[in-house]
Design brief:
Layout: E1 8-12, H1 17-28, E2 32-36, H2 40-50, E3 53-55, H3 63-76, E4 82-85, H4 100-128, E5 131-136, H5 149-169, E6 174-181, H6 204-215, E7 225-228
Helix pairs in contact: 1-2, 1-6, 3-4, 4-5
Length: about 230
Amino acid sequence: MINIEGKVAVVTGAGRGIGRAIAIELGSLGARVTIAARSVMELEETARTIGSASVFPTDVRKKADVHRLLEHVEMHFGPVDILVNAAGVGVAGNIVDFSDAEYDAILETNLQSVFVASRYVLRSMIERKTGHIINIASIAGKVGSAKIAVYCASKFGLVGFSQALAEEVREHGIRVSLICPGSTDTGFLGSGKSSKSREKMLSPADIAHAVRMIVLQEPNSFISEVIMRPTMKP
């Protein structure tokens, strides 16, 4: 069986929702997890649940913050073995009502931060001929929907970036995996106020289970993409 005990893992967006569930899952597998998000209180709660995790408050929209996070991890724990880009933000609304600030926040969080973090860790991964990058996208990165055009654009971009990056680095033994969840019970994009049945939605733990499957995959193959939908339509 593949074993990730002692592997150095970084999870962004780990204060709540999908990122939190993934961080807890990796911690349960014995990885040395550093969790990043903007809220210190949420990170500390996640860390208590894991039992042993490094907390590093980070605003992934800021390139300098992402660099400080990864420099801290390398200095204290060593090169990153597993990077999970789970930080995400979305704003619903008509394009004519969208502000430049909202557009920038979505693209910087959902796409730019993945580029910045991946570029940083890849230098070491290429040298060591090993590593795993897991990007959390969305069904909205596959099919456009009204009212979330900018969010869709960021996730379509993330899908394309992940697919291209996987081809670029696989020759170095590095695996890039993409997860595209459907409706998930996180309250994201106002889903908590929608007419969808929360009981039928995916849970963050469902996505964390997919991450477990990905990181425990035998080394001669990799799961490049996982599309997840609720069994029953919410």
